Prior knowledge:
The complex is a heterodimer of chains A (297) and B (123). With 297 residues, chain A is α/β, with parallel strands linked by helices. Helices cover 70% and strands 9% of the residues of chain A. In chain A, strands 1-2-3-4-5 form a five-stranded mixed sheet, with helices on both faces. In chain A, helix 4 (54-74) crosses helix 5, helix 5 (78-94) crosses helix 7 and helix 8 packs parallel to helix 9. Chain A is rod-shaped, with a radius of gyration of 32 Å. Chain B has four helices and five strands; from the N terminus they run ββαβαβαβα. In chain B, strand 2, helix 1 (22-39) and strand 3 (43-47) form a beta-alpha-beta unit. The model of chain B is unreliable at 119-123 (pLDDT under 50). In chain B, strands 1-2-3-4-5 form a five-stranded mixed sheet, sandwiched between helices. In chain B, 46% of the residues lie in helices and 18% in strands. By secondary structure, chain B is of the alpha/beta class.
Amino acid sequence: MTELVPPTLRADEREKLATYWHFFEPHAEAINAEMLAVLEKMPNWAAMIHAMRPEEVAEQNKRSNARTKAALLEDDWKEYLADLHQQGMGYAKAGISFAAWFEIIAVFRDAVRHRIAEVAAKDIHHATSVGEGMNRHLDIAMSYLGEAYLATKEEIIRDQQEAIRELSTPVLQVRDRLLIIPVVGLVDTHRARFLTEGLLRAIRERRARGVVMDITGVPIVDSKVANHLAQACEAARLMGAIVVMTGISSEIAQTLVAIGAQLRGVRMVGDLQGGIEEIDRVLARTDALDDEIEAAP
Amino acid sequence: MSVPILKQGRFLVVAIQDELEDGEWQTLRTDLLARAGLHRSLGVLIDVSAMEIMDSYATRMLDGLARMLRFRGAETVVAGIQPTVAFAMSRLGLRLSSAGTSLDLDDGLAELRRRTTRRGHGV
């Protein structure tokens, strides 16, 4: 996990955070109870709150308060931020929207605000400091929570990309020494590399003489993609395989001509079946020729 | 050290182990062309399975060699280009236009036979 950098605070900001905490601590239990009551009625949070027993909730609040106290009073942010990050990732993975957090913050702000209002008349200066400290605290909390959400989303995207990559480049062996590569989805540089390496390894391991690369499932072919595919075919030919490409749609055919793509040395056949038949024909010819050669006096 | 050239019927077989330098390519060219002439070889099989790298220089040398051998009446097949090498070559756009390619020595010999057989005569 990346190091969480604690917030940079001016001396006066730290003072206000401490002022806020001193004000808040005695009210903590009451405020937590109020929040629970309100959140229980909210669709986003109700289910989760009911999943926990009251003792668990109390324990959690106690620990959370201790961490917050260390952060606000002693400038020790480590555990507080770590816990916040953990929570953020957990809720992000559970599918609770980041916006839903603002619901909680709103309830919290209200709960603290009306208690500040009660003492404001006596000492407006103090009340203002408490309010500012609270705002700073909540801003810090939300920013770290947001970062945690972002980090989680990025992680999910990376995992999905990896899954897609692996999913879509199977190498299938059909006959003795004939491989079929069905290419599905968008082909970027990464995937092209993955695909080509897998293909070449398979040619060597299964001693393939023929390869049919079917691109029916490739929606877009631009000059970069055309290049990637051409390179894959060329590499296969360098290893002695006959390469046939099938499944080029009418749209892609037009695109290829429009961009002047050269897929030299690659035989094109309309569909997969035709491609397999073509390789069978070529290999049958070479086999027949081999027999002739052997039989010759 | 010069690359050993073996004779297999009407074919010559050569295995290149490492990257060759200018002088070594020159020697190999001279030797192969001489031997091809001497034995009236119909084909030359060049095994490169031990080569971990084949850059544009090596590819040019091989392709040039194949063209020269054709002038001497011999077909060339390059056997055993490794997956990583094939991948790198394709990305750099390196081509062997004057020689056939095969997965390994066995396939290479079969390919040479096919390329050099004359219908009804056999090799």
